[in-house]
Specification:
Radius of gyration of chain B: 21 Å
Number of strands of chain A: 4
Structural class of chain B: mainly alpha
Helix content of chain A: over 70%
Shape of chain B: globular
Number of domains of chain B: 1
Number of helices of chain B: 14
CATH topology of chain B: ABC transporter involved in vitamin B12 uptake, BtuC
Helix content of chain B: over 70%
Distance between the termini of chain A: 16 Å
Number of helices of chain A: 14
Oligomer: heterodimer
CATH class of chain B: Mainly Alpha
């Protein structure tokens, strides 16, 4: 467990340290308003990262996340134009996401093609389908969308948790129960830890792999639904590159890309760190596009190195 | 112990190499046959203004930068790594080229500066992966995220004018030697040099040893860190070379869009060419063939007259078919059926 908890503890420490540093730099930074905004703005990314966490825990990878977010958005906008209720189209897209993910899992396991490549084809396919559905941004006009955006829980201070953040927390709790309280969750860790041993111990490989990618697809579709409702539109380029942010969030949250080690809740903190990086850059306000890109890279680097150093000292102390 | 030995071509019988290249070649053949059916003039090659001209030449011409990047990627993937930053390195190399030309350097020196910057980027990635032991996908994500910003910054600070004229560089990119486009010769030269480096020296063996089992390689006396570092240096250099070709082609430094998503095409090219992301194998010829397959596909979709929004869907479908053809399991099943039929 030491191997599991140390990176997460380091991530939380680094997050708090930088949040504090932000408070030192800017007035009004240390507030529940900023914290609530980070959670609300990045809810879709955290949800996508939760799905990606399962896939990565099993030793795989899913690159189709960003395209799925875009595809869900354009289809929901299209169906909105036909008069569908957003909840109905959301359910349809969740089923589609799970089915698409499951199909990817089946290809990976049955045909023994590397996950990176199968899901890369998935990335191309879904992004291509986005363009086929719509080439332009389309609005979601149903009154439910603005109602959804209006719901919020107020926090102490001026802050509030938006409906997107609340949905994210619900998805996180479900995911934690699946990962740590079901035999499927144990199978995910077993496959990621040592595939051959897992198979010998009787883990149903094909069924589990298909379920893992179906769960990944379901969560990326949910991320797409949250994103579409949050921006109240569907845009065919939405979510470009979100797969890499999700993977970065998972890794920052302490999950090893080699699989078997990590906690689902890590995605929350990993995603919040990425959100914090964006917020720090926004608070500065004077940065142009070039500096935003460079400082995101520098901050990502700083986080990774700090986390690495902290994990090193934590595990060294525990070993004594 | 047998299963832990790196599947090096030095140890494997020569005939194994043929089927490996057969599948991507078959995919290329299929794409071209479809092209031939759609447009009968697809294969015509003629000489216009002293150089070869035609769809086939165009495919190889446009595939050259992808192939250069894919060659470097094949080396990195051989060490069980990955380099997501190649597109950013292309952007930085292009911006450096423009900057040095406008600050009055001889164009050959500007070229060397761009390649040097590529090596520096490779060194950065290599240090993160080999010394800090950060997982490659995350380590190279840092430069991927910030690299285009660095390119823009170079343009902003030093390059008042993002476009330039250079007989030397444009000659390298769009010129021709005899009937043959120069960039194809440049690509061939770099590919052969890399082939020599990995097949005529022990470097290739070490690469595959490190990729197959880093700990065993270290115990066997291979300096795994140094080898990994060298792999990222090679990848940075190849990406910068592609950056020079692409930037000189438009004689403009455009860090935002030059080589966008080329990392995905390069990785795909390596895999179509028979490489495994699990490391331990470096197939240079396969990577080049993979790049040609991808470009053939792109060119075919464009010339077939399909609306451009169908591009990605067709690409995904063809990629899946190629992968299914290549899948060892599907192939074994097919061979099994074939053998049964012969009995």
């Amino acid at each position: 467990m030491r191997q599991t908890w140390a990176p997460l503890a380091a991530t939380i420490t680094v997050f708090l340290a930088l949040f504090g540093a932000g408070g030192g730099l800017y007035n009004h930074f240390l507030s529940t308003l900023v914290l609530g905004n980070i959670l609300g703005d990045n809810a879709f990314l955290i949800v996508a990262a939760i799905g990606a966490n399962f896939v990565i825990l099993s030793g795989g990878i899913d690159l189709s996340i960003g395209s799925m977010i875009g595809f869900v958005g354009v289809v929901m906008a299209k169906l909105d134009g036909f008069g569908w209720h957003p909840l109905a189209s959301a359910v349809l897209m969740l089923v589609f996401g799970a089915g698409f993910g499951g199909l990817q899992g089946l290809l990976i396991d049955f045909c023994e093609i590397q996950p990176f490549i199968v899901t890369l084809a998935g990335l191309f396919l879904l992004r291509g389908l986005c363009f086929m559905v719509s080439l332009d941004s389309a609005p979601l006009r149903h009154p439910f969308v603005s109602d959804f955006a209006g719901w919020a829980v107020t926090l102490p201070g001026e802050g509030f948790l938006a409906s997107s953040a609340l949905t994210m927390f619900a998805a996180l709790v479900v995911a934690m129960l699946i990962a740590h309280r079901t035999s499927f969750g144990a199978d995910v860790y077993a496959i990621g830890g040592d595939r051959a041993s897992a198979a010998l111990m009787g883990v149903p490989m094909r069924r589990t792999i298909v379920k893992i990618y179906a769960l990944g697809g379901l969560y990326s579709a949910l991320a797409g639904v949250i994103y579409a409702l949050y921006t109240s539109s569907g845009y065919p380029l939405a979510g470009s590159g979100a797969e890499l942010s999700a993977i970065a969030a998972v890794v920052l949250g302490g999950t090893l890309l080699t699989g078997g080690v990590g906690l689902v809740v890590g995605s929350l903190f990993g995603g919040m760190i990425l959100g914090l990086i964006a917020t720090l850059i926004n608070f500065n306000g004077s940065l142009n596009g070039a500096w935003i890109m460079i400082s995101s890279g520098v901050l990502l680097f700083a986080f990774i190195v700090m986390q690495r150093v902290l994990v090193g000292s934590l595990t060294a102390r525990a070993a004594h | 112990m047998r299963s832990f030995a790196p599947p090096s071509p030095l140890a494997a019988p020569r005939k194994r190499a043929a089927p490996r290249l057969l599948w991507p070649a078959l995919a290329l053949g299929l794409i071209l046959v479809v092209d031939g059916i759609i447009s009968p003039h697809f294969f015509s090659i003629r000489i216009v203004e002293g150089r070869l001209f035609g769809n086939l030449i165009d495919i190889v011409y446009r595939a050259t930068p992808i192939a250069m990047v894919a060659l470097g990627m094949a080396v990195v993937i051989g060490t069980k790594g990955i380099d997501l930053s190649v597109g950013s390195i292309i952007a930085i190399a292009g911006a450096t080229l423009d900057w040095r030309i406008h600050s009055g350097d001889p164009h050959a020196v500007a070229l060397l500066a761009a390649l040097g910057v590529g090596l520096a980027c490779g060194l950065w990635n290599g240090l993160l992966v080999a010394v800090l032991e950060i997982q490659p996908i995350i380590a190279t994500l840092i430069l991927m995220v910030s690299g285009r910003g660095i390119g823009l910054m170079i343009n902003l600070i030093y390059g008042a004018n993002p476009s330039f004229e250079s007989a030397l560089l444009q000659g390298l990119s769009t010129g021709h030697v005899g009937w043959i486009p120069t960039r194809i010769l440049v690509g061939l030269g770099l590919g052969l040099a890399l082939w020599g480096l990995t097949r005529l020296t022990a470097f290739g063996l070490f690469l595959e040893a490190v990729g197959a089992n880093p700990r065993a390689a270290q115990l066997a006396g291979v300096e795994a860190r140094g080898i990994k570092l060298a792999a990222y240096l090679v990848c940075g250099f190849m990406a910068a070379s592609a950056g020079v070709i692409l930037t000189a082609d438009t004689h403009t430094s455009d860090p935002v869009s030059v080589g966008l998503y080329i990392e995905l095409d390069a990785i795909l090219a390596v895999v179509i060419g028979g490489g495994s992301l699990n490391g331990g194998r470096v197939y240079l010829a396969g990577a080049v063939l993979g790049a040609v397959v991808i470009q053939a596909l792109t060119t075919s979709i464009l010339t077939s007259g399909l609306p451009p929004e169908y591009n990605l869907v067709v690409k995904a479908a063809v990629v899946l078919v190629v992968l299914l053809l290549q899948s060892a399991k599907v192939r074994t099943a097919a061979v099994g059926v074939f053998r049964k039929g012969r009995r």
